Amino acid sequence: MSVGKVRDFDIKNGNWSAYVDRLEMYFVANKIAEDLKLPTLIALIGEPAYELLSTLASPRKPSTLKYKEAVELLQAHLQPKPSILAERYRFRQRRQSAGETIADYVADLKKMSRYCEFKINLEENLRDQFVCGLRSEYIRQRLFAEDNIDYQKALVLANTLEAAERDAGAVEGTQEQTTSRELSERIHKLELNKCSACGVNGHGAHNCRYKEFECSYCGQPGHLRRVCRKKEFDRRIKSTISNRGNNGARGRSRRGRVIGSSAYGAGVWRSGNMARGGAATLAPHAATTLPTRRTG
Questions:
Q1: How many helices (H) and strands (E) does the chain have?
Q2: What is the mean pLDDT of residues 24-42?
Q3: Long-range pairs for 192-197 at CB < 8 Å and ≥24 separation?
Q4: Which of 94, 121, 200, 284 is deepest in the core (most CB within 10 A)?
Q5: Residues 40, 41, 44, CA angle at the centre, nearest 5°?
Q6: CATH 3.30.1370 fits domain 84-167
Q7: What's the CA gap between 91 and 188, in Å, rounded?
Q8: Where in the chain is the domain with CATH 1.10.1200?
Q9: Model confidence over 176-189: pLDDT tens digits?
């Protein structure tokens, strides 16, 4: 019974190099002899890949090839050898992206270096590009301060600093949330303790010495002018009327002079238009009647 399973090769989306690596391990695990590797390859790659191999090997038949020849034919077609200069250029352009961890950044750098043929200088080139492409200025400067740091040590130190930055950010975020919540709670408590008679915090209206005073604005007892609700209500009404009046002055009727009358009642504007032949037009700029203000 064979060990493991190798699926058909996907000639559109598959990675031939990775497929061959898995196939080689399958040969080892199942102790497949050299003279049986080609038949095993042909049996496992699937019909689309076999048809491609037949086309590439023509006029020879795939069965007449050696195993290495079949692999190289498919390799040259599916993954032609890229330009070393172009691959190194792409490698040099790689930078750590926003939100990308150092571990993911390094993994992609190593993947990109496969076709750069750095050979014995691989780790030196990985170190240089890794450090130069780091997103964190703090981590990069910290690595610059190290004397002749190698690739492995740079990676360990950068991961440690990244974790420290992440933990520090989490702690600061928690502290900010706590401070904001505590401030909101204090403000809420102050609002609850605000006296309705005088507006001062720290006591209720029932203990306020102004609870029997008569308001100089509305004439009602029990509060001072500065906390008078009627005063605030009237202020808002005047503000609303003023805004509507300013807007209405810009929108006079184009068909004739508007002679209108307006009255305020139950929070609704009512207008009448007496322009000859004119359509009904709202004239909020006209005279307005407001509740009589009492002074005291």
A1: 10, 2
A2: 94
A3: 195/227, 196/223, 196/227, 197/222, 197/223, 197/224, 197/227
A4: 284
A5: 85
A6: no
A7: 57
A8: 84-167
A9: 565 666 666 665 55
